[in-house]
Amino acid sequence: MTKIFATRQSLVTCTSTLAMAGMLAMPAAAFAQSTAAPATATAAQPSADPLATPTATTTPTPTPQTPAEASSAPAPAAQPATAAPVQDIVVTGYRQSLVSALNVKKQSNGVVDAINASDIASFPDANLADSLQRIPGISIERDGGEGRQITVRGLSGDFSRTRLNGLESTIATTGSTLGAGVNKGRSFDYSVLASELFNSIVVRKTQSAEIDEGSLGATVDLQTARPFDLPKGWQAAFSAQTAYYDINKNVEPRLAGSVSKTFADGRIGIMLSGAYSKRNVQEDAYSDTALADFGGVNGGFCPVVPNTPVTPVDPLVGSKPVTNPCIPATGQYPGSTPSAYNTVNQPNVFVPKLPGYGRFLDREERMGFAGTFQAKPTDTTLITIDGVYARYKQDQNDLATNPISLNRANGTATAGLTAAQLTGRPNMKIRDAQVDASGQLVYGVFDDTDFSVTNSENRSTTSFYQAGINIDQKIGEKVNLHLQYGQSESIFDNPYSRLVTFSRFDSDGFVYDARTNPTRPILNYGFDATNPNNWQFLNGYDQIREYTNKVTNRLHTVKGDLKWEVNDQFTVKFGGAYKRFNFISRRQQRIASTGTVPSLSSAGLTIGDVSTAPINIDTIGLSNGSTSSFIVPNIGKIMDAFGVDCYCVNQYGDFRLGSLGTGAQGDNRAVQEEDVSPYLQFDFNMDLGSMALRGDAGIRYAHTHQYSEGYVGIGTAVNFTRNYEDWLPALNLALDVTPKLTARFAAAKVMSRPSLSFLTPGGSISTANPPFSATVGNPNLDPYRATNLDASVEWYFQHGALLSASFFYKDVSSFVQQISSTTTYAAAGLPLELLTAAQDPNTTTTVTSYANSSGGKIKGVEIQYQQPFTFLPGFLKHFGTILNYTHIKSNISYILTTNAAGPTFSAPLVNVSPNSANATLYYEDDKFSIRGSLAYRDEYLRTVPLRAGYADTAGSYSSTNFDMSASYKLTPHVTLTVDAINLTNQPTSYWDGEERRDQQTYSSTGRQFFFGARYKF
């Protein structure tokens, strides 16, 4: 396979008051929304010059931006001569962080939101995504109990860029098996980095020419603390907490610290920060992750007369009569009971495909370090070197059970069993059934049902490092030069991924009942699932799956920016960036069929010898009669007994791993992307009578070169080269109508490149069990493109207070959508060589790919109110509040089939809640501080369309999360802290079918509490 790192020729080529109910809160971070390049913000007067010597006497909070952007940010507009004098107010702690965030907001030209830590090493939330969700227009989807990725103004993480210390970064990891899985896109996994390493976050919602291209949603800037941002001399802080998880009564540590020192009269500074934590996650769930589908899929149920041809009643399933194997039952009805069969075998009747109960366990260890060296050898030169390292270890187990035959089609004779005995849905007999008015099966009794219990174990380590150097040089009195070089690498290494199943065949009396508890239906197996004698380990049917995965993302960046201050009102800026992004995915799996397993008797074992103690799903309120207790395979004992981890051929079987010629070969792929983007921008700051107008106008040119490679067939390497270009004009205007009232307007053409994993010419294929599946990339995808318009009004009616309203509009002209179709393995043109002799090329196969669609429109309103209640008497003056509300309306045209010119379906954009709101009530005096935070989001869509050719959706119910944080200053140096996350014990609840509302997932991770202390020098 051609090495993607081969030397390539460099590209050369010429961006009203909000009302809210409840007493609520947020952890120790500050928020401010505004409208792109904020100046450095501190509790003291901010400086727009990165070469200026810091003079703050309270802990400053820097803005996360490159020094060039700091130096190029326009100075605050001149205020009218009639401006009233501003009273000096000294604030510290949480209120100080709120004031500094408002400074970032007010001084910016574009729309930004900011969060600042109240002190060094004291960013409050468990991770950064949990903090970001409190910003207007930002939502998160919690995965395994904590935030992982963000959605900004209706656009997911793939549409936004994250910069760490001014350098674009990508981090890929994995999460809950009920969550997003391994991230192979451009989105940033915030769960990898410890929040204590960071001092501030800025979310840029509008684009300037000087800001790198690549975002339709926002550019998120994460900034670690730097020594020159702090008062001179020695600064240090350390914290220790004990974390308690109520769902499993587990206790884990969380430690953090930061040390900073300046030397040589403030001309040299060094800062080091570190954080370490452990986390033990338990997530109990009901799930139907395969989604409900037509009753006739997978061959349909056994008809009234077994082994007679049946014509599917739903055209999307098929139009030709099919005869599937069904073993006749004894008694009155050898096939399905006529009345029950006729209830289900109707058009548009949906049946769950894989309902089950499970427990997800994740033992996590998170460690991170950040360091900065700064030097100011002359008054005109500043050198900054930043480094960040993070390591995130996970040891996961997914323990689950389900009636597997609902999701299996015709079987293949093996190990002394006939094809009919190993057939799934076509051998199931329906004995009783109820279908609601929407067409959803809500009750069913089935005979000849096959069941499975599963234990999968994944051990992974995500390692991330980034290093960067910034040089700021003044050239005379008018010119500033900024140079930046940086590189980062994220490696997700999953060297151990195992799955083992036990099974039970043709069991009678299975009951599915969603009539009284539709979010957690009753699954009654009709037998004791904790008794080892009721399970078997069968060659040809049960599984020993082995995988290894590795995903590498590397990014190199070179940037240069020149700023010429023509006069006090006009500044010219020009520069450019070169970035090289490498995405590499590697995967191995068993060379032999995963269904080839040794017999337990060959090792002198029984099911009881290699199974776990019973698992009891008792935290999500399952109804009486549910089979909520079950055993699962003990993976460690089975691996040891058969020598599976030898990766060799031994007396028990072939346990070698390979890539080419297996279903894993399509996940061995790579993409290299090179981007060149020069820009020209003009900044201005002028008086308009009694008002002041400031802003920027410019254009950025972006040239993209992509080279991708993958495999097709049996190990045939293919590659693809693509080039495209974009001209991206941008305008930001800020009109200071009065010293307290600012109006803003912004317009820009923007683009966002498709996920690199979408661009590979190969694909992945799964043939472990019918129906088969395949995912194929599309290297010819166009980028997402849009025109963005923003307008806002901000009223700073009191020191530390804000009332603002913002309107945004995005006209998305090019969109990338995942599309699926259902066909047979042979008809899809997939390599027949990957099938075993016993597998049928005519097996039903779902093929997933990606295509460009015509896009659509997104528009919305954000309202924010923030105020300290200093006008109240007595202790009431220590209270304050922050409220925000976002309303979004979107309409996107989705393709229903693999034919991009075929029928389409209009629906809201996925991951967009039409309404979301955050509310905070806080109290802070000299010693005691307490905050409560409420985050609400409406239900939203997660999958469009629901299945190939069918205009329906799947989504999430609304959610409300309530968190609290409190601290007490015991001495000037020691502070005691208490934090609580998810006090409402908000479950994750997903549905499928806009009208049917079949339950896809209902899971709970419980509440989390943190008790600790912080010491500051």
Tell me about this structure:
There is one protein chain. With 1017 residues, this protein is mainly beta. The chain is 4% helix and 49% strand. A hairpin with a 6-residue loop joins strand 35 and strand 36 (802-824). The longest helix has 15 residues, at 93-107. It is globular and about 95 Å long. Residues 1-48 and 53-91 have low confidence and may be disordered.
Brief overview:
This protein is mainly beta and about 1000 residues long. It contains five helices and 49 strands.
Provide a count of the helices: 5
Structural class by secondary-structure content: mainly beta
User: β content, as a range?
Assistant: over 45%
Shape assignment: globular
* CA radius of gyration: 30 Å
* Intertermini distance: 56 Å
Largest sheet descriptor: 22 strands, antiparallel, barrel
* Beta strand count: 49
pLDDT averaged over residues: 85
In the predicted model, the low-confidence regions spanning at least 5 consecutive residues are 1-48, 53-91
The share of residues in helices is under 10%
List the helices and strands and how they pair.
Layout: E1 32-33, H1 67-72, H2 93-107, E2 112-116, H3 128-132, E3 138-143, E4 146-152, E5 161-164, E6 167-169, E7 198-204, E8 219-224, E9 234-245, E10 250-263, E11 268-287, E12 293-294, H4 338-344, E13 350-351, E14 356-378, E15 381-402, E16 429-435, E17 441-447, E18 449-475, E19 479-507, E20 510-513, E21 522-524, E22 544-565, E23 570-590, E24 615-616, E25 629-630, H5 635-642, E26 649-650, E27 653-654, E28 657-658, E29 669-688, E30 691-712, E31 716-738, E32 741-752, E33 763-766, E34 772-776, E35 784-795, E36 802-824, E37 844-853, E38 855-868, E39 879-895, E40 904-907, E41 915-924, E42 928-937, E43 940-943, E44 954-956, E45 959-969, E46 974-981, E47 988-992, E48 998-1004, E49 1008-1016
